[in-house]
Amino acid sequence: MENRAILVITHGEFGIELIKSAEMIMGPQRNLRALALRPGESVDDLREDASKIVEENEKNGLETILLVDLLGGSPSNVSLSLLSKYDLHILTGINMPMLIELLTFYQTVEDTNNLIETVQGTGTSGIHHLNRNFLKK
């Protein structure tokens, strides 16, 4: 389904660098952008920038999937504010396994809700507690 775009919004450069890392693994990606809320920057400006990107995606016939770092933080609050105006999907707690999974399948999986469920599961299953006992297995 080649009508989706991904927008990552995070505190600081986290999302921008996460995308760079994912592209180092997977190569350049289409319809993938990031916004950063840097210290001293306005949340209103971030909201305006995010709104412009989502609006541009809609004009281009692209459904937007938003990935944010922390539920309740400014990036997620900005994303939630866009829900009243745009039809989009928001996933919180972005991590590298989530982004890699999403980039692997976001252009081919038909049902967005199934895609989101898979990516959410991958994000959770990508978290492991490793200690010396792990080495003994």
TrEMBL record:
Primary localization class, coarse: cytoplasm
GO BP terms, alphabetized: phosphoenolpyruvate-dependent sugar phosphotransferase system
Xref: SUPFAM superfamilies: PTS system fructose IIA component-like
Record-level GO cellular component terms: cytoplasm; membrane
GO MF annotation terms: kinase activity
Subcellular location: Cytoplasm
Cytoplasm is among the record's keywords: yes
Domain PTS EIIA type-4 residue range list: 3-127
Keywords: Cytoplasm, Kinase, Phosphotransferase system, Sugar transport, Transferase, Transport
InterPro entries: Bacterial_PTS_sugar_comp (IPR051471), PTS_EIIA_man-typ (IPR004701), PTS_EIIA_man-typ_sf (IPR036662), PTS_IIA_man (IPR033887)
This protein's record includes keyword Lyase: no
Protein name: PTS EIIA type-4 domain-containing protein
